Amino acid sequence: DARFWETFFSADPRQAVSAVEPADHCLTADSTMLDRIAHGFSRVIDAKSPWTFQHSEGVAEISAGLAVTLGFSPVETRIVRRAALLHDMGKLGISNLILDKPGKLTPEEITEVRKHPAYTYQLLQQVAGFREIASLAASHHERLDGKGYHRGLGADQLSVADRILCVADIYEALTARRPYRKDLSDEDAMDILAKNAGAGICPEVFTALKYYLANGGYKPKAIAA
Question: Is the pTM of this model over 0.90?
Answer without folding.
Answer: no
